[in-house]
Design a protein that fits this description.
seven-stranded mixed sheet, globular, Rossmann fold
Length: 254
């Protein structure tokens, strides 16, 4: 399991688990450290994808189904053990949804809450018509990367860093840009859904996520652009919100 999951702080007494999915090209460390910040009632599992961190020698996944299959194969026993929630930003939001969809359809399991950040729903017109960034030339791709923030410009100016960083980012973007999903005829889930986004990011069709669940639907807009969640103030707001809602969900679950 350690090959796929980063967990900085094991909490056997935890009432719930928060499973976090990386943004495109991202690793697990940003989320794994949340396990040290959140109180003892929440254990954090951060997903590690192939081609980065301790999995550098493994080939990148080519499609969303490969991610879904691996994560469910590894996590299924844990997910049956106690309540869990999902959190994902951008590419990670799509992955969270794909995992939740498969868990419900194949195993009749669902999260007690799903937190989605910085992304339109996969079946929304806004997302379907979006520019495919993975097809941009290297020059235009770098311009786009600088424009969304989140990556220090000095790193992007370093050719050696780019050689390590760009392949993972482009591989993830190809996965998410080729991921197709029909709008649900009826909501598959019944848990609450919360969407976070940066006020200065490009617009996302957050309202379309309402269709995935019959549970409460909430949108929280925070100051910042695409990587607004890296700001320490915004991170505190997000973690306080998650803590409050997972504690409430735990009471409902019991």
């Amino acid at each position: 399991m350690e090959n796929v999951i980063s967990c900085f702080k094991k909490k056997s007494e935890a009432l719930a688990r928060l499973i976090c999915f990386p943004w495109a090209g991202g690793g697990s460390i940003h989320y794994a450290r949340w396990g040290k910040v959140l109180d003892s009632s929440i254990e954090v599992y951060a997903i590690k994808l192939p081609g980065r961190e301790s999995r550098t020698n493994e080939p990148f996944f080519q499609n969303m189904q490969q991610i879904v299959d691996e994560v469910i194969d590894v996590l299924l026993p844990e997910l049956k053990e106690k309540p869990f929630a999902l959190f994902g930003h951008s590419f990670g939001a799509m992955t969270s949804f794909a995992i939740a969809d498969a868990l419900k359809r194949l195993h009749n399991l669902e999260p007690v809450h799903i937190f989605l950040s910085g992304a339109s729903a996969p079946y929304s017109e806004m997302r379907i018509n979006a520019v495919k960034r993975s097809e941009l030339s290297d020059e235009d791709f770098l311009k786009w990367l600088i424009s969304i923030g989140g990556t220090p410009p000095e790193l992007l100016a370093n050719p050696e860093v780019l050689k390590l960083f760009l392949p993972a980012l482009k591989a993830d973007l190809q996965v998410v840009e080729n991921y197709r999903c029909n709008k649900p005829e009826s909501p598959l889930l019944s848990c609450p859904v919360t969407c976070f986004d940066g006020k200065q990011d490009i617009p996302h069709d957050l309202q379309a996520w309402r269709d995935i669940s019959t549970g409460d639907f909430t949108v929280r807009m925070l100051d910042g652009s695409h990587f607004y969640l890296k700001d320490s103030g915004n991170e505190k707001i997000i973690l306080d919100y998650i803590t409050k809602h997972l504690e409430t969900c735990e009471m409902d679950y019991l």
